[in-house]
């Protein structure tokens, strides 16, 4: 157990010999279709701390890519998993019934935005939740609205339907065409690097008007658009936070033409930003909400929550053998209870505000920090060259040095440090990580 850890402990320069043995077997036996930031091998974890096979202890600033919101091995979640595993492991919700998915659905319809009646569909991942959203949106209109609008810079998954919405890096789509047709991409509101070369608020939200003036009035009939899919904060695209009035303007546009809003909360949801769902920061109620990652503290589970009148696919049109697995649902119920009982939404707000303050102070000291942005514990630190352009080499070197110093932090976008620790992190633990990050960045600048 790592309960007594208060700071990282690097005994052997990582990766150590035991880690290297696992890395070699991994490369031999597992398809290397994913890009890892550095060769960290996880053995065990507790709270915000992780240990590798060589006895090195690390502070976790990425939560297993936004999954371990309650920290690693939270006792209440572990107990719920054990209790359910002794009762029932699986019996396929698509053909039969059991109680835990119903209990979880009762919680999900309460915490998701909107007071209207809702229904839930269970999946196993974020990509599957997006796939379900695509089918529900198109199916609800019975094929009369085949188009979906998505945003460049956003990430929605790598299965073929989700990939058709994804547009954060060309490598994700390269070689897989033809993708699902009738998906139209428009620029995401990235104010630090506005794709329209304008300045907020003088732009008058041209990124929304562009959709109407140049998409719906030029080549995509609005009556054939089923939905607009978006991330409330662009994750893989660089932890980009839209301006305050963006989503209300987008909602107004969607309502004007009867277009549904698909809110991808896979990374930003379940308390990550200090609210149950990030879209709450903008006061907008989406029609469909895709959920995964943090919902079950590490067990595979996803969900699509939507207006009851829209979640109307007829029997036989969509299903999942493992979706709503009883053990995963039990873990999810415990996860939501921990977040409520331990006031982790409030902790994410307070520790996140403290981190933003520290990072902005760091920005004043280090010119290579071009932008600091985020909400709660979903924070991006964009690194730049002297001319203001992205600096991916500096990002890579900073992350590698931080890893060897005992901090697990990764990037997003072209050159943005992605800070997303477990929601149980304390202010003191955050300070430990930020000091390592600052020292790592300074050392990387010397070497870059």
From TrEMBL:
Domain of life assignment: Archaea
Cofactor: pyridoxal 5'-phosphate
The enzyme's E.C. designation: 2.6.1.13
GO MF annotations in UniProt: identical protein binding; ornithine aminotransferase activity; pyridoxal phosphate binding
Gene3D superfamilies: Aspartate Aminotransferase, domain 1 (3.90.1150.10), Type I PLP-dependent aspartate aminotransferase-like (Major domain) (3.40.640.10)
Keyword terms: Aminotransferase, Pyridoxal phosphate, Transferase
Catalytic activity as recorded in UniProt: L-ornithine + 2-oxoglutarate = L-glutamate 5-semialdehyde + L-glutamate
Keyword Repressor part of the UniProt annotation: no
Pfam families in UniProt: Aminotran_3
Enzyme class: transferase
PANTHER family hit by this protein: AMINOTRANSFERASE CLASS III, LEUCINE_METHIONINE RACEMASE
Family label: Belongs to the class-III pyridoxal-phosphate-dependent aminotransferase family.
Protein name from the UniProt record: Ornithine aminotransferase
Organism: Infirmifilum uzonense
Source species taxonomy: Archaea, Thermoproteota, Thermoprotei, Thermofilales, Thermofilaceae
């Amino acid at each position: 157990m790592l309960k007594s850890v208060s700071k990282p402990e690097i005994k052997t320069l990582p990766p150590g010999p035991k880690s290297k043995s696992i890395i070699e077997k991994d490369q031999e036996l597992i398809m290397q279709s994913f890009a890892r930031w550095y060769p960290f091998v996880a053995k065990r974890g507790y709270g915000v701390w992780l240990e590798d096979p060589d006895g090195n202890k690390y502070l976790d600033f990425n939560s297993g890519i936004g999954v371990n919101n309650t920290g690693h091995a939270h006792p209440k979640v572990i107990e719920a998993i054990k209790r359910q595993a002794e009762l029932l492991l699986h019996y396929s919700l698509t053909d039969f019934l059991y109680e835990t998915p119903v209990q979880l659905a009762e919680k999900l319809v309460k915490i998701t935005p909107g007071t209207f009646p809702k229904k839930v569909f269970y999946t196993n991942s974020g990509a599957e939740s997006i796939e379900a959203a695509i089918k529900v949106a198109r199916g609800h209109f019975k094929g009369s609205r085949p188009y979906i609008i998505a945003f460049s810079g956003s990430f929605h998954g790598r299965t073929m339907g989700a990939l058709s919405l994804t547009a954060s890096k060309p490598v994700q789509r390269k070689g897989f065409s033809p993708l699902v047709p009738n998906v139209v991409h428009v620029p995401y509101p990235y104010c630090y690097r506005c794709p329209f070369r304008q300045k907020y608020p003088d732009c008058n939200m041209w990124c929304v008007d562009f959709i109407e003036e140049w998409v719906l009035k030029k080549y995509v009939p609005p009556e054939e658009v089923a939905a607009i899919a978006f991330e409330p904060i662009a994750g893989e695209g660089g932890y980009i936070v839209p301006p305050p009035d963006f989503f209300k303007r987008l909602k107004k546009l969607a309502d004007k033409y009867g277009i549904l809003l698909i809110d991808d909360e896979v990374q930003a949801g379940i308390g990550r930003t200090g609210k149950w769902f990030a879209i709450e920061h903008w006061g907008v109620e989406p029609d469909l909400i895709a959920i995964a990652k943090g919902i079950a503290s590490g067990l595979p589970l996803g969900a699509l929550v939507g207006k009851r009148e829209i979640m109307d696919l007829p029997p036989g049109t969509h299903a999942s053998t493992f979706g709503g697995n009883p053990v995963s649902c039990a873990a999810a119920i415990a996860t939501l209870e921990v977040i409520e009982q331990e006031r982790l939404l409030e902790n994410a707000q307070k520790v996140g505000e403290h981190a933003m303050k520290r990072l902005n102070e760091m920005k004043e000291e280090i010119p290579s920090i071009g932008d600091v942005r985020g909400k709660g514990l979903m924070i991006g630190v964009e690194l730049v060259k002297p001319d203001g352009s992205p600096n991916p080499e500096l990002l890579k070197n900073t992350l590698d040095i931080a890893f060897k110093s005992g901090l697990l932090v990764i990037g997003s976008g072209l050159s943005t440090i992605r800070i997303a620790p477990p929601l149980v992190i304390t202010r003191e633990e955050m300070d430990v990580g930020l000091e390592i990050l600052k020292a790592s960045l300074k050392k990387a600048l010397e070497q870059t």
